[in-house]
TrEMBL record:
Residues 205-214 are annotated as: Important for the catalytic mechanism of both phosphorylation and dephosphorylation. The gene is hprK. The lineage of its organism: Bacteria, Pseudomonadati, Myxococcota, Myxococcia, Myxococcales. Its EC number is 2.7.11.-, 2.7.4.-. Belongs to the HPrK/P family. This is HPr kinase/phosphorylase. HAMAP family: HPr_kinase. Catalyzes the ATP- as well as the pyrophosphate-dependent phosphorylation of a specific serine residue in HPr, a phosphocarrier protein of the phosphoenolpyruvate-dependent sugar phosphotransferase system (PTS). HprK/P also catalyzes the pyrophosphate-producing, inorganic phosphate-dependent dephosphorylation (phosphorolysis) of seryl-phosphorylated HPr (P-Ser-HPr). Its cofactor is Mg(2+). GO terms for molecular function: kinase activity.
């Protein structure tokens, strides 16, 4: 989502913003396009060079108190210039009573003037969290997201390949479910994406032959997580004898989610393979890589050294295919 209406903040229940409208009702359709908040104290001195449009502005006790000391004509002049800059809205914190000039200027410009009972620091933190959740890029994916040894693993694969059954086995081993079937994904930072369960089917799984089961009720709150960073995408594919699968682990494939590249593992499925153990080992191996240990590369280096030192071996070593 690129922007939200100012009016949507008045309807918020999740982040306890405690907002009420004082003036500028006609401007509730104005857009907020940034999660960053501005506390523009210097505008009251007439300095408006770095005032950002479509950003929520905050006046606290300092700004309101300073306004009360200004001559009325000067206050009207400064406030009219302030509201003419295209700001999204202005929030007065600490339950303070806005000056008559502030209310009149907001109403005249059609810019929403809101008030909250929170302190400035508390409100800024809450509203920033609210805007970050709403404004971040998001999508939905068909798969299963799990927390395995603290690693977020997204299982992908065509319907019926066994994603939910593998997830259920992992949960019974003490790992945690984040989402089954529909995974809501949001980009939190430029290089990380987080997944969570859909509100409608959160904590539930579909197991063919059993139907819908509630993981939280069956296994307790320790068996679930509300959200998790996606660190590995593990795609389950049907075993094809004609395909040459990666046997050394040297290939480093990537899966792009919301323009973020996540390590991709393609794992063939066939009867007799213990997929639960393979997923656990994938998580452990990822943790080793984060600590600087890449088993496949270390093995290749040892093999190349052994070949180079062997009688008749090449001094430059060789690559393992």
């Amino acid at each position: 989502m690129d922007a939200i209406r100012v009016g949507a903040l008045l309807d918020d229940k999740k982040f306890d913003l405690r907002l009420s409208l004082i003036a500028g009702r006609q401007g509730l359709s104005r857009r907020i396009s940034s999660s960053r908040i501005q506390k523009p104290g210097l505008v009251l001195a007439g300095f408006m060079e770095y005032l950002h449009q479509e950003r929520l502005q905050v006046f606290g006790n300092t700004e309101v108190s300073y306004l009360r000391t200004m001559p009325r004509e000067r206050a009207v002049e400064v406030l009219r210039a302030f509201f003419a800059q295209g700001i999204a809205c202005l929030v007065v914190t600490k339950g303070l009573e806005p000056t008559p000039e502030l209310v009149a200027a907001a109403e005249e410009a059609g810019v929403p003037l809101l008030r909250t009972t929170h302190l400035s620091s508390t409100f800024i933190e809450s509203v920033q969290n609210c805007l970050e959740e709403i404004l971040t890029a998001s999508t939905s994916m068909h798969g299963v997201l799990l927390d395995v040894f603290g690693v977020g693993i997204l299982l992908l694969g065509k319907s019926g390949i066994g994603k939910s059954e593998i997830a259920l086995d992992l949960i019974m081993r003490g790992h945690r479910l984040v989402a089954d079937d529909i995974v809501d994904v949001k980009r939190r930072t430029p290089d990380s994406v987080y997944g969570s369960g859909s509100e409608i089917i959160k904590h539930h799984m579909e197991i063919r032959g059993l139907g819908i089961i509630n993981i939280k009720d069956l296994f307790g709150v320790a068996s679930i997580r509300e959200r998790k960073k996606i660190e590995i995408v593990l795609e389950l594919v049907e075993w094809d004898p004609s395909v040459e699968y990666d046997r050394l682990g040297l290939e480093e494939k990537k899966f792009r989610i919301l323009d973020v590249e996540v390590p991709l593992l393609m794992v063939p499925v066939r009867p007799g393979r213990n997929m639960t153990t393979i997923v656990e080992v994938a998580a452990r191996n990822h943790l080793l890589k984060l600590q600087g240990h890449h088993s496949a590369k270390e093995f290749q280096e040892r093999l190349n050294r052994a070949i180079a030192l062997a009688p008749g071996g090449s001094a430059g070593g060789m690559d393992v295919e």
